[in-house]
Specification:
Blueprint (H helix, E strand, L loop, with lengths): L1 H12 L1 H14 L2 H11 L6 H24 L18 E3 L5 E19 L5 E17 L4 E7 L9 H5 E8 L5 E8 L21 H6 L4 E9 L3 E9 L11 E9 L11 E13 L2 E14 L2 E15 L2 E17 L4 E11 L9 E11 L5 E12 L5 E11 L1
Antiparallel strand pairs: 1-2, 2-3, 2-17, 3-4, 4-5, 5-6, 6-7, 7-8, 8-9, 9-10, 10-11, 11-12, 12-13, 13-14, 14-15, 15-16, 16-17
Length: 401
């Protein structure tokens, strides 16, 4: 019974994506050749009705096998993105410059209940994210590319500016290094550059969503070694294709991993820092940050601080002096169940006294299929020095097809 309910729920939520997966499967394994093979064996010719039924059964056989594979899919690593239908949605080419293409989609939905301090409440359901991604590998395996679209309506920018997100090519010809050219999310802070598909909470921290969390066009060098990694890039200071080269920007971040060669016996320790600086439309900005993270068995924690003398992040270009920090704690009760908590403080303008905004968040993540299918519950207490406090209960889900 549990298996039947799981399959029905999955089909209802992701019917459109499953249908597209079926179409790709049918293209890769056409029905007609199988029917021809059957006709060669049988002495009597098949009628048109029999041919139709053969294709009909083949269709449902493929669907049944796909649902069975999804139900039995085991994903334990929650630190990286994952999807439910990677194999059937990946097409490999026998010839040509492109070796393979993987088409997938991610949907995030949540319902938020706001409870102000002085009574009253309001509910809001939103589709926070709808992404369609095309990941491709060029023949030889040294280069790859990504194209990502986001049709989610945004009130602060035009549809086409939001629609094209990632658009880049990478090369891996230098050992331990990747060179990226195109539009991507630059490495401004740790959480600010983190994929939305692996975030522990529904919302990013305040420094991440205000000072980072944007995409820019440029050239990046990313390195990953046992004891350190780095992300260095030069960009146009434009964000989301709103202007043509209004200035230049440099973003750089370096992490050190002191326990990188201990095979995880003492956990994973990462500490680092960096800055983003540049000019846009004759406005200078400079953001600096520091980070400390530690993981040991089922426990993990992250702490990050940022200070800005002008910024060009998610809240837009500004000359305001800002600062903030957060600390997050997490514990995996089981491989599927995780409890998390975060203290988050942000000063949106240091020239104004008594202006701090604090958020206390507690949450539960249930990973049915890793990051490919998870349920999220967040409680947020917002404490602001210049406006009434509030409570927010958020229930969300993430589905990656």
């Amino acid at each position: 019974m549990k298996k039947i309910l799981f399959i029905i729920g999955l089909l209802l939520v992701s019917s459109s994506s499953v249908y597209s997966a079926e179409e790709i499967v049918l293209e890769q394994e056409p029905v007609i050749p199988n029917l021809i093979a059957i006709q060669e064996v049988e002495s009597l010719p098949q009628s048109e009705e029999q041919v139709y039924k053969g294709g009909h059964h083949h269709f449902y056989d493929e669907l049944s096998r796909t649902v069975h594979d999804v139900y039995n899919l085991q994903i334990e690593n929650t630190n990286v993105p994952a999807c439910l239908l990677k194999e059937p949605l990946t097409h490999k080419f026998e010839s040509g410059p492109i070796e393979s293409v993987h088409v997938w989609s991610v949907i995030q939905m949540n319902n938020s209940t706001l409870i102000p301090q002085y009574g009253g409440s309001s509910d809001k359901f939103s589709v926070g994210l709808v992404n369609t991604l095309i990941d491709g590998k060029f023949r030889g395996g040294k280069e790859d590319f990504r194209i990502m679209f986001d049709p989610t309506p945004q009130h602060n920018r035009g549809f086409m500016q939001q629609f094209i997100q990632d658009l880049y090519v990478e090369t891996h010809r230098i050992p331990h290094n990747t060179i990226l050219v195109g539009n991507s999310r630059p490495g401004v802070g740790i959480e600010g550059a983190q994929s939305p598909y692996t975030l522990p909470f529904i919302n990013r921290s305040q420094i991440s969503r205000n000072l980072a969390n944007v995409r820019k066009f440029g050239v990046r060098l990313k390195g990953n070694y046992a004891l350190m990694d780095y992300d260095l890039g030069g960009y146009s200071s434009d964000t989301f294709f709103t202007q043509f080269f209004p200035g230049v920007e440099f973003d750089g971040w370096v992490n050190f991993k002191p326990l990188g060669k201990t095979d995880g016996r003492y956990g994973k320790l990462v500490t680092g820092g960096g800055f983003a600086t540049g000019q846009r439309n004759s406005t200078d900005f400079f953001v600096a940050g520091a980070y400390l993270g530690y993981e040991y068995k089922k426990f993990w924690t992250r702490m990050e601080y940022a200070n800005a003398d002008g910024s060009n992040g998610g809240s837009g270009l500004t000359t305001k002096k800002r600062q903030g920090w957060y600390v997050t704690l997490g514990y995996h009760i089981t491989k599927k169940l995780e409890v998390i908590a975060r203290y988050d403080e942000f000063d949106p303008d240091k020239t104004i006294s008594n202006n701090n905004q604090r958020e206390y968040t507690a949450g539960i993540n249930y990973y049915l299929k890793g990051q490919a299918l998870k349920l999220i519950l967040n409680y947020v207490f917002c404490q602001n020095q210049n406006k009434p406090d509030s409570h927010r209960i958020m229930v969300g889900t993430q589905i990656a097809i």
